[in-house]
Specification:
Order of helices and strands: HEEHEHHHEHEEHHHEHHHHH
CATH topology: Rossmann fold
Bound molecules: 3'-phosphate-adenosine-5'-phosphate sulfate
Mean pLDDT: 93
Largest sheet: 5 strands, parallel
Radius of gyration: 18 Å
Structural class: alpha/beta
Number of helices: 14
Strand order of the largest sheet: 4-5-3-6-7
Low-confidence stretches: 1-5
Number of domains: 1
Shape: globular
CATH class: Alpha Beta
Number of strands: 7
Distance between the termini: 42 Å
Helix content: 40-55%
CATH architecture: 3-Layer(aba) Sandwich
Length: 296
C-alpha cells in the first residue's frame, strides 16, 4: 500500500467534523485566524454539492467571459482551497492566501465553527451552493471511494455515518442551515444545485448581478454551454484529470464528473433507508423554510 493509500488512516474527528490527514489541527487553527479581505470571492459548499460547477461559472464571469483565459489554468489552481495542505507543498493554504493578489478566488467546505472567523464579520462575497441531502450523500459516498486519502465505504456503512454526521466534513444539516440563515445578507448568495439543473441561465445571471460583472451581449448561451455537464466532463481543466498536481490521487476509476443528475439517490437508498433519513430530515429541517428538490 502506498503512502497516499494509507492517509485515510489519519482521518479523525475535530470538533465534531471528520477530517482527513490533509487537514491538520495546525491548519484548522491557522485558517480560523487568517485574514479575509473585503474583496475576496468565496465559493462555499458541503463537499460534492456542486462546487466545481459554481467555480467554473464564477471564474468564467470573473474573466469577463474569456473562456480561454478562464481555462488557461485548471479549476483546482484558479481557486485557493482553504481546507487542505497540499502534500509536499512547503506552506499551508493560509500562507498561500497571504501571498495572493486581490481579488482572491477561494473555495471552502468548512463548517461555520471551522471557517475563517472573519467570514462572519467582513464583506467578502460568498456564493453558497446547497444540494439535496440524498444526492449529496451519494456523490460524497463515491468521492470517498475514489480519493486515496479518504476511507473506502460500503453504501450501508456510509449511509449510517452520513445520518450520524460522521461522514467526511461533517453535518449536511449544519452547513446548509447556517448559510440558509445568512441568505439575506448583502454579501451572501444562496444557490441550489437543483435550480442550476432546472435553469442554468437564470443562475448565471444571478451570479453576475451579485458580483456586478455584466455578461456581454450574446455570451449567456455560450456560458451555459461551456458550463454544461457534458462540456465540463470533457474539459481537462474542470474534470480533475490533472488533480495529482494538488496531491489528490484517485484509487478508483469512477470519474470526478460522475453523473451530474438530480435523483440518483434512488439507485442507492433502500426504501427503509429513505424513510429513516426522512425522519431525521423532518426533525432538523422543520420550520427552517429550506426546501430542496429530490427529483425533477
Ligand atoms: S468537490 O470535490 O466537493 O469539489 O465536488 P463538487 O464539485 O462539489 O461536486 C461534484 C458533483 O457535482 C457534479 N457536477 C455537475 N453536475 C451537473 N452539471 C455540471 N456542470 C456539473 N459539474 C459537476 C458532479 O458530477 C458531481 O456529482 P455526482 O452526483 O457525483 O455526479
Amino acid at each position: 500500500m502506498s503512502v497516499t493509500d494509507k492517509r485515510f488512516e489519519d482521518e479523525r474527528m475535530v470538533d465534531g467534523v471528520l477530517h482527513s490527514s490533509l487537514t491538520s489541527d495546525e491548519l484548522l487553527k491557522a485558517v480560523r485566524k487568517m485574514e479575509i479581505r473585503n474583496d475576496d470571492i468565496i465559493v462555499v459548499t458541503h463537499t460534492k454539492a456542486g462546487t466545481t460547477w459554481m467555480q467554473e461559472i464564477v471564474s468564467v464571469l470573473f474573466y469577463g467571459c474569456d473562456f480561454k483565459k478562464a481555462d488557461s489554468k485548471s479549476i483546482i489552481e484558479r481557486f485557493l482551497f482553504l481546507d487542505i495542505h497540499i502534500p509536499d507543498c512547503a506552506v499551508g493554504p493560509h500562507e498561500i492566501a497571504d501571498s495572493l493578489p486581490s481579488p482572491r478566488l477561494i473555495k471552502t467546505h468548512f463548517q461555520q465553527h471551522q471557517m475563517p472567523e472573519q467570514m462572519l464579520t467582513n464583506k467578502a462575497k460568498v456564493v453558497y451552493v446547497g444540494r439535496n441531502a440524498k444526492d449529496n450523500a451519494v456523490s460524497l459516498f463515491h468521492f470517498c471511494n475514489i480519493v486515496s486519502h479518504l476511507r473506502t465505504y460500503e453504501w450501508d456503512s456510509f449511509f449510517h455515518d452520513f445520518c450520524n454526521n460522521k461522514a467526511h466534513r461533517g453535518s449536511w444539516f449544519d452547513i446548509n442551515l447556517y448559510w440558509w440563515s445568512r441568505r439575506n445578507d448583502d454579501n451572501v448568495l444562496f444557490i441550489k444545485y437543483e435550480d442550476m439543473q432546472k435553469d442554468l441561465s437564470s443562475v448565471i445571471v444571478k451570479v453576475s448581478e451579485f458580483f456586478g460583472w455584466p455578461i456581454p451581449d450574446g455570451k449567456l448561451d455560450e456560458i451555459v454551454n461551456h458550463c454544461s455537464f457534458v462540456s465540463m466532463k470533457k474539459n481537462p481543466k474542470t474534470n480533475y484529470s490533472d488533480s495529482t498536481t494538488v496531491g489528490v490521487n484517485f484509487k478508483a476509476s469512477t470519474p470526478f464528473m460522475r453523473k451530474g443528475k438530480v435523483g440518483d439517490w434512488k439507485n442507492y437508498f433502500t426504501v427503509a433507508q429513505s424513510e429513516e433519513f426522512d425522519k431525521i430530515y423532518e426533525e432538523k429541517m422543520k420550520g427552517t423554510g429550506l426546501v430542496f428538490d429530490y427529483e425533477l
